[in-house]
Every structure is written in structure tokens, then in C-alpha cells.
């Protein structure tokens, strides 16, 4: 496996079925730590010849804290290195919800706003996957709370779409723009009304969401009536 690693077959090494075994991983890491320091640094700084991935990216994806710490110790410069597609170590950890790894990376100066090639940020992917602990961690650090991806979809927009109420509350508490419309014109509250996310509608109304923003001439109240969402109609009528 070390020969494959040295030859740039990083993903093959860390996708090896044996790496799913904790005892094997511990013995493997112990063996690596027994190498000379310059050899360890070379391994930590090796890039996959096909994807440009690194050992750090691979283990952030898996949440392997011990190897993540080893990688950072021997090659801190890779903390913001991205594989093909633009995914950084932090992005991979956020995607998979590995909160402790996220904490370690942030403490080692990972760029919390670093997006992949589709302009998807670590916060965006954490919101989409409903990794609440990771979202909370990211919102406490420097981040662009209203940033959109390449399709003009914001962090709030994605959680409205999936109905992640707790994440919506976190973002609203951090001053996300609750009236920011999608590229196609739908407002957050209109989407929540259409999808019958009653708790999210209540939350948005509590924070003074604009119920008069129209999409193709249709208001949130119009869409609630059209879809016969009685409870939501009552909530909206109270705002009139």
C-alpha cells in the first residue's frame, strides 16, 4: 500500500477495504509514524495522479481524526488544497458531517468560505445535508451567510427546499436574508407555503418575511389557497 501511495494512487490506498477496519488503520498509521520524518512528509504531501486529491482530503471524507492530525502535522500547507472539482478538506468534512474534523481544520486555518467549482460552500453543503452541529460551527466563524451557488441558490433557499427547520433557525439567527429570492423569482416564504412547511412559515413570519413578494403574479397566500393548505392560509391571513 505504501508503494501505491508513493506512486500517486492515493484514492486507491484509502479506498482499500482494509481501511474500513479500525484495528488495521491503527496499525497502518503506527507503521507510517515509524518511518523517518522526511518520508512521512513526502507521503503527507503526495497528490493523487488522477484526481489531485491528498491523504488529508481522503481522511476528512471518512472522519479519520488520527490521520487528519498526522496529515496536518506533516503538511499544513495542504489544509486548503482542493481535488479536481474544487472540494477542499473542509468541504469534504462538512459534506459528511464530521464535526470534530471540521473543528480541527478551522483551528488550522481552513478557509471556511472556500467553494468548489460550482460555487458551493462548506456551509451550503452542511445546510443541505442538515448537519446542524457543523452549521453551528461554521456560522460562528467568518462566512458569507447569503452567498449563492452558481445557480443563485442560497444557504437559506436550500434548507427551505428540504424543510430543515432547525437549520433555518440557525441561519436566520445569523442574519441570513429571509427575503432573498431564487434566480427564478420564488421567495423563501412562497416555497415554504407551497411545500407545507408550517414551522418554517411561522418562523419566517416571526422575523417579518415579506408576504407581498410575487412570483409570476402569485403571492404566498395565493399559493397556499391554491394548494388548499388551510393552516398556512390562516397564518398568512393574520399578517394582513
TrEMBL record:
ANK repeats lie at residues 85-117, 184-216. The keyword Repeat applies. It comes from the Eukaryota. Pfam families: Ank_2 (PF12796). GO terms for cellular component: cytoplasm. PANTHER family: ANKYRIN REPEAT AND PROTEIN KINASE DOMAIN-CONTAINING PROTEIN (PTHR24198), ANKYRIN REPEAT-CONTAINING PROTEIN-RELATED (PTHR24198:SF165). Keywords: ANK repeat, Repeat. This is Uncharacterized protein. The keyword Mitochondrion does not apply.
Amino acid at each position: 500500500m505504501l508503494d501505491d501511495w508513493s506512486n500517486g494512487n492515493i484514492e486507491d490506498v484509502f479506498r482499500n477495504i482494509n481501511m474500513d477496519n479500525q484495528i488495521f488503520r491503527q496499525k497502518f498509521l503506527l507503521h507510517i509514524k515509524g518511518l523517518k520524518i522526511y518520508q512521512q512528509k513526502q507521503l503527507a504531501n503526495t497528490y493523487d495522479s488522477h484526481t489531485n486529491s491528498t491523504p488529508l482530503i481522503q481522511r476528512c471524507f471518512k472522519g479519520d481524526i488520527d490521520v487528519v492530525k498526522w496529515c496536518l502535522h506533516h503538511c499544513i500547507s495542504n489544509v486548503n488544497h482542493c481535488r479536481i472539482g474544487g472540494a477542499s478538506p473542509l468541504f469534504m468534512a462538512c459534506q459528511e458531517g464530521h464535526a470534530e474534523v471540521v473543528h480541527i481544520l478551522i483551528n488550522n486555518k481552513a478557509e471556511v468560505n472556500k467553494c468548489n467549482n460550482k460555487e458551493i460552500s462548506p456551509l451550503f453543503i452542511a445546510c443541505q445535508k442538515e448537519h446542524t452541529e457543523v452549521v453551528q460551527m461554521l456560522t460562528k466563524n467568518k462566512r458569507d451567510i447569503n452567498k449563492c451557488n452558481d445557480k443563485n441558490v442560497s444557504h437559506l433557499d436550500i434548507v427551505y427546499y428540504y424543510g430543515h427547520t432547525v437549520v433555518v433557525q440557525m441561519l436566520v439567527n445569523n442574519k441570513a436574508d429571509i427575503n432573498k429570492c431564487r434566480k427564478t423569482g420564488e421567495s423563501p416564504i412562497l416555497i415554504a407555503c407551497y411545500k407545507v412547511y408550517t414551522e418554517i412559515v411561522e418562523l419566517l413570519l416571526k422575523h417579518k418575511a415579506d408576504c407581498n413578494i410575487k412570483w409570476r403574479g402569485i403571492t404566498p397566500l395565493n399559493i397556499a389557497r391554491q394548494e388548499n393548505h388551510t393552516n398556512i392560509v390562516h397564518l398568512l391571513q393574520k399578517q394582513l
